[in-house]
Specification:
Elements: H1 4-19, H2 23-38, H3 44-63, H4 69-83, H5 86-102, H6 106-123, H7 126-142, H8 146-163, H9 166-182, H10 186-191
Helix pairs in contact: 1-2, 1-3, 2-3, 3-4, 4-5, 5-6, 5-7, 6-7, 7-8, 7-9, 8-9
Amino acid sequence: PVGVLWMSTTISLANRQLDTGLPEQAGQVYIRALADLQSQPQTTWTRKNIAILYHQLGNVAEDLGLDEAGDWYRQALQIHEELGLRANVASDYLQLGTAAYNRRRLEEAEDCYRQALALAEELGDQPIIGHVYHQRGMIAREDGRLEEAEEWLRQALLLGSGLGDRRSMALAFYQLGLVAYLRGRLEEAEEW
């Protein structure tokens, strides 16, 4: 049977591969681990790890620009909901939103982001809240709702600043500059 140490080591290896720009290799490792887990008795532990692998395979598909990213995230979401793992559910909705956004399905993306935000706010998950604020700002910008975009992005910036998350702050600065530019406020855009 698949052991905890083996699974942890395998997922860590694949995560490292994904983080270093090797999504194909990571995907192969995740698929092998998934097959091993699916052949085991379905306990809470195996189901939780299967959901983790589904989510990671969604990340691989997203990195490769494949349409099936959403399918992987939905499979993870289903298990996480069944197991009552609400933080994971929020993360799955966030990723589903991003997959829809990347395929220009903005209405679907907003629906997913609303669900992620509602759960993240209940749980007090500040990083997910900040990410959703940022994404909703980008959608509003693309829809031409520039005032709304600026509000979302300012909230993302404030939250990122409070968390000391310099990466999210830099992304918010860039997007706020773009919104200011689109609103014809060129000096403000340059300041951002």
